[in-house]
Specification:
This protein has 281 residues and is mainly alpha-helical. The chain folds into 2 domains: 150 residues, no CATH class; 119 residues. Helix content is 54%, strand content 10%. The chain contains 13 helices and 6 strands. The protein has a two-stranded antiparallel ribbon with strand order 1-2. Strand 5 and strand 6 form a beta hairpin. Helix 2 packs antiparallel against helix 7 and helix 10 runs parallel beside helix 13. The C terminus is likely disordered.
Length: 281
């Protein structure tokens, strides 16, 4: 939000911490209707013509397609069911629409009865990029902090100050390392992720460090190397035994996740510099 107004600055705004679900659903619905009217869903989900009636898009039966994809009824049409959406319903339809949006580029104007444009050419990537901007503008107002990623997943927003860590490229040429780190991030941030899901995400990051251990030995002292694995080994993240602490809450798990994610980035950069220093000239 680029500007805060008086009641927000004074702390007297009744929605200072964000809007409830029903208000956010209402905002989403208005954005959807705007984009629908602008032709962003015509290619995939079809459109309406005053002469021809309903014109199917790529998806011939949207209700059936949504049921097969999401395994839920009473989701489509949005105009009919949005008022009863749960949080899961809202995020499901947001993700579904991401995969069915495309920017209208060119078409034919149908003047009769103000029918409007019959779009014929679309750009999917441009449509998805615009959709992400519009949806995140809605989600930023939700009292629970989520966002939609550039790849169409609704994810938990990074804690304050940690957003750059999520956005940073994994500094490794190993596809195994990068895929495991990216998988851990998605697993941790995924909407509906349980404590066990997030514990597994922390373990995945610790396992990445274990994978890098031979190179870590060359850049850290033995004591520092041991400290890297102390948290995961003693808090029931990796190896299970009776001496481990397992009764930690979500806040501790969050700290461990960010600790290991930051550590992976630092270690990979140190390894990269070390490899560069040892490269032949």
């Amino acid at each position: 939000m680029s500007h805060t107004y008086y009641s927000q600055r004074a702390g007297t705004n009744p929605n200072l911490n964000g809007l409830p679900l029903d208000a956010v659903v209402g905002l989403f619905f208005r954005v959807y209707v705007q984009m629908r009217n602008e032709g962003y869903f015509d290619e995939q989900l079809g459109s309406h013509c005053v002469d021809l009636g309903e014109m199917a898009g790529v998806v011939k039966d949207v209700s059936l397609d949504i049921f097969l994809a999401i395994r839920k009824s009473d989701i489509w049409p949005i105009e009919e069911f949005a008022h009863q959406y749960s949080e899961d319903d809202l995020f499901d339809i947001i993700e579904y629409l991401f995969h069915h949006v495309s920017k209208p580029i060119d078409g034919t104007l149908h003047n009769y009865a103000d029918c409007g444009m019959h779009w014929e050419t679309f750009n999917r990537a441009a449509g998805q990029a615009y959709y992400v901007l519009r949806i995140n503008d809605v989600l930023q107002h939700y009292v629970r902090k989520f966002e939609i990623s550039d790849t169409g997943f609704v994810l938990l927003k990074a804690e304050q100050g940690m957003d750059k860590l999520f956005a940073a490229d994994v500094p490794s040429e190993s596809s195994i390392v990068t895929s495991r780190v990216e998988s851990a991030i998605v697993s941790y941030r995924r909407h509906g992720a349980s404590l066990d899901d997030r514990r597994k995400a922390v373990r995945e990051l610790a396992d990445v460090l274990e994978l890098l251990r031979p190179k870590i030995k060359a850049i850290l002292t033995r004591a520092d190397e041991a400290d890297l694995f102390n948290v995961a080994n003693n808090f029931g993240i990796r190896h299970q035994n009776d001496l481990q602490k397992t009764d930690f809450d979500g806040a501790w798990l969050s700290w461990m996740f960010y600790f290991y994610l930051a550590t992976v980035h630092v270690v990979l950069r140190r390894i990269g510099r070390s490899d560069g220093d040892n490269a032949p000239t």
